[in-house]
Amino acid sequence: MSTPATPLIAVTMGDGAGVGPEVTVGALLDPATLARCRPVVIGDAARLRRAASITGLDAEISAVDSPSDAVFAPGRINVIDLDLLPDELPWGEISPVAGDAAYQYVRVAAELAMRREVQGICTAPLNKEALHAAGHLYPGHTELLAHLTGTEEVSMMLSTPKVKVVHVTTHIGLVDAVAKIEPGLVERTVRRGDRAIRGSGVAAPRIGVCGINPHAGENGLFGYGEEEEKIVPAIAKLRADGIDARGPLPADTAFFLAGRGDYDLIVAMYHDQGHGPVKVLGIEAGVNITVGLPVIRTSVDHGTAFDIAGTGTAGVGSMIEAMRQAAELSVAA
């Protein structure tokens, strides 16, 4: 059972039409989760009760006004009930109402974190189309949390037992990503990743930095010298400051090397360069961590899975792992 020595974690329910309520209930009833932290859901109590019923889980869904009011016991799930979803909200469909609710859950969690009422945030998946339909025009959780916490620049890190990846660019088109990459952005991303890995207990992280082009440009054979222009100067500056950044590396071998233990962190230049290998390793083991925020934030590395939402078949492994990492990275008040 959790104790006052374990961190308080705000758990956002995600899009109520997706699998968020189901994986939230499943993860919070897992005995290991309650042993690691004190989770408080920001969501809708009625939807969580429906999710528990659908999954066949016996849960006491208890509304509380604040994290300090929560009581932690096996089988009990504490929720700050925003009561934003209609009872008839269908599963598995895009809904502006659900999109707005998902935004509000994150907003409240960010406010709690900034007031230090919780020590970390763990997010169930939201749906970007629903979020946009509700008028909240953010590419995803990462950018939304940066806005809500007044953080100018953050990075997305994917963490699995075999490899950790931090991204220089994420939710933009590939042509735009190449244009956006520049030495300062590469350098800042590596520094954020280095701090995060050190914070997880690695004293001297070995960091592999991917190139942009096939074979990392192969000495100018592929591309237009992007590696020499955009990446090499950043690596030189980082190494001069004592950060063990190596590259630019061919991306198709960098992940193999990381998987066998040569690197503690891989720096990907764009979204699919980093996400593809991580998801091949097993999406259920992946956790999304936002680095650079003034608060710890982890998330499942999967979407709202509208095709199976409301069926009680969603796997909870990624949410349990996200809760584990949120607890380990956070410090109890």
What does this structure look like?
The protein has 333 residues and is α/β, with parallel strands linked by helices. The chain is built from twelve helices and twelve strands. It has helices spanning 20-28, 31-36, 45-55, 96-114, 128-133, 141-148, 174-180, 183-199, 226-240, 251-259, 271-282, 317-329, and strands spanning 8-12, 38-43, 60-63, 76-81, 120-123, 155-159, 164-167, 206-210, 244-249, 265-268, 287-291, 296-300. Strands 3-4-2-1-5-12-11-6-7-10-8-9 form a twelve-stranded mixed β-sheet. α1 (20-28) packs across α3, α1 packs across α12 (317-329) and α4 (96-114) crosses α6. It is globular, with a radius of gyration of 20 Å. The two termini are 17 Å apart. The model has no long low-confidence stretch (mean pLDDT 93).
Write out key terms for the chains shown.
333 residues, alpha/beta, 12 strands, twelve-stranded mixed β-sheet, single chain
